[in-house]
Amino acid sequence: MRSHRDKYNLILQEVARSGRQWNESISKQVFADESFADLNVESPDFGDFSWQGTLGVEAGQFVLSGKWKLQVPRACSKCNGVFVDVLSGEIDEHYIIEPKHEEMQAELELTGNEPEALESGELDVLAALREHFWLAWQPMVVCDRACKGLCLQCGVDLNKGSCDCHKQVKENAFAALKNLKFDA
Ligand SMILES: [Zn+2]
Ligand SMILES: [Zn+2]
Fold this sequence. Notes:
Bound molecules: zinc ion
Number of strands: 7
Distance between the termini: 94 Å
Mean pLDDT: 87
Structural class: alpha+beta
Helix content: 25-40%
Low-confidence stretches: none
Strand order of the largest sheet: 2-3-4-5-6
Order of helices and strands: HEEHEEEHEEHH
Number of helices: 5
């Protein structure tokens, strides 16, 4: 049986002309590495990484392209409530095996693409997918555009209830005003 490491660690020199195809769910245990330590990977709301993609050869470059999707539990930055967010994206990455000849380099410069040069020809597909996931990651998210958040004074979740803090501030301000003495 091939290990996950073999499955997603490719040697570009060994990739067949027909390329590679994926249409699978990469289990979160395999996908989430130490960079996911702050995320609640154990939660049942944290999904497996859905990946439909191909690795092909185009004009001397290796092209990794496809679509991915991952469901992640998140905490709303306004009300702290946990909700399920779905991140997704498309990938179109170009790679070359580090060119040895000046001629090859000149040819690449003409194409205008900026492929990533892999010296050894080793491509870690999982690492590339993780990179795209983190590019799509938003540090601050809200459960709903209409989320009212927490009251800054008493901490009540204003989506679920209300408080009198706002009213009191107004009253206090008015009372303060009344107590002002004016020099006549
Ligand atoms: Zn919220
Ligand atoms: Zn309040």
